[in-house]
Specification:
Blueprint: H1 3-18, H2 22-26, H3 33-48, H4 54-61, H5 65-78, H6 82-96
Amino acid sequence: MSPRKAFRRAASVVARDCSVPLQTLLVPRGGRRQVQRARQVALYLAVVSLDVCRSQAAHAVGISHQYGMRAVAKIEDLREEPEFDRWIASLEERLIA
């Protein structure tokens, strides 16, 4: 699966769960904090669950490699919180189902 398709697939799952329009997540930057976090989660899922290289995922989304790395690292850090980790795990299950 191409990095762009992987991100779009992950973004679709996240958009439904967060009640955010998919098109909003497909724009590289901007939006409310909720939209920014949802976009970061979608990027994280594309990298971790769909096995897309971080730099390819960032490029597919239209962001810099550095921003993509920070976004993925931020979600990895947030997974230390049990409730957040359960949420991400549920998204991963839906994404790979």
